[in-house]
Amino acid sequence: MDQPAPIPPRPRLRDRLTVPVLASGGILMAVMQTVVVPLLPDLPRLTGASAATVSWTVTATLLSGAVLTPVLGRAGDMYGKRRVLTAALALMTVGSVMCALSSDIGVLIAARALQGAAASVVPLSISILRDELPPERRGSAVALMSSTVGIGAALGLPLAALVVQYADWHTMFWLTSALGALGVAATWWAVPESPLREPGRFDVAGALGLAAGLVCLLLGVSQGGTWGWGSARVLALFLGAVVVLALWCRQQLRTARPLVDLRLVTRPRVGLSHVAALLTGFAFYANSLVTAQLVQAPKATGYGLGLSIVATGLCLLPGGVTMLLFSPLSARISAARGPRITLALGAAVIACGYALRIADSRDLWMIILGATVVATGTTLAYSALPTLILRAVPAAQTASANGVNVLMRTIGQAVSSAAVAAVLVHHSSPLGGVPVPTLHGYLLAFALAGTVALAACAAALSIPGDGPARGTRRHRGAPRGTRDEALEGA
Predict the structure, then answer these.
(1) Residue 345, pLDDT above cutoff 90
(2) Which of 4, 97, 250, 392 could bridge to 195 as Cys pair (CB 3.0-4.6 Å)?
(3) Per-residue exposure over 439-449, b if at least 16 CB sit within 10 Å of its own CB, e if not
């Protein structure tokens, strides 16, 4: 591959704004994914659709995000990361405008599917940070970028709840549309285009095969509780996922320029990082799911606090603030001990958070403390995962490799949602003629998530040799993106 030409010096203001602009894009993406949650109970009345149909406003975003994240990551490696990142933010903004203009459930579902493209914002941004920042700034910037998912989710829920409670629900989407348009403009202005490219023809067959396999898998997981895990539809989806993904793997191994380099995935440093991402995604997502339901449960249950959706969002807000504050610490731990240790420590902290939840889930302050400890562990783990990937793959494949890592987190979250729902449904008792989860069911969900967090810790410790980052400075005149290639494991 030809060496890229050196990039001319850029204005200092733009250099300073690159990291804040990318981080704000990640936060906005997470906010956009979260804002529809407070609307779900009222959407059947507002749209005239059934509750099952309304749930697709969440499912559509999950499915499209899972499919598009590795696809857009690969496109970024081939055609330019800033270009693809800007397109993803633009699709997200268009989807928000569609939601603001319509109350038709079909339009809303299609718009939410468009917004799923924004799931690729974090892996693309992390790849840009690797190409553009010197080693001494890269670790903290990547840690912050990884934490934006939790920060945005913690901010999005109370924000959306306030808007829904005190204004027309379309106002929320007009607000996110304006923020999205600002994000697109800021990204185009402040973020440089990476000089690194992975040449070749885009693997269309691989993209279609992966899309079909993931849709079958995630649709079966997300709808299993509604349709029945033993129903013909769910079993057919799982069988289809196995067949399609098996054929897809065969096609990827035979393609000269595959969408996902499976030979790279089989390397222990990469493969075990993906396993840890899946398990961490499972453990992290259970925290938000269970906490929101627990504090909103009626006081008549004996354990519920009967809080409003606004108060529920405020309970999760300290976790988001903690993620913002702890991201620099996670970068320092990775620099001193290596990201493998940071990942293992983060998973262990998540498990400790769930131990607190099991010890006391009746007092509000203990609930907030336990949820915040889980968020702290998530910060450590999520900041370490992209650093592990960056050290283990060639620079020209960082966006696609991080896209696969984010995909594994998404699959973990989908499985977590299904598992937690199954546990709570199985452990329910009638209250006023309506089945309500018991406290024992919530404690079992915490125990399950804590056990998965310990499994993530074990997977992290199994990742082969990893040490502190060696911060060799780039030689003067060397092109961006080529510094420290040997040290990064490319």
Answers:
(1) yes
(2) 4
(3) bebbbbbbebb
Q: Cα(87)–Cα(82) distance, rounded to whole angstroms?
A: 8
Contacts of 114 (CB under 8 A, 6+ apart): 64, 91, 92, 94, 95, 98
| Helices within 298-338 (DSSP H only) | 309-337
Helix axes 268-296, 439-462, angle to 10 degrees: 160
pLDDT, tens digit, for every residue of 210-268? 999 999 998 998 888 888 888 999 999 999 999 999 999 999 999 888 888 888 888 88
Q: What is the pLDDT of residue 187?
A: 94
Note the residue count of the chain. 490
Directed axis angle between helix 105-115 and helix 81-101, to 10°?
160
CB 453 within 8 A of CB 279: yes
Q: Which of 260, 267, 216 lies closest to 240 in space, CA to CA?
A: 216
CA–CA separation, 138 and 126 (whole Å): 9
Q: Identify the burial level of 251 via C-beta atoms within 10 angstroms of its C-beta, where 0-12 means exposed, 13-18 middle and 19 or more buried.
A: middle
- What is the token pair recorded at 464? 């082969």
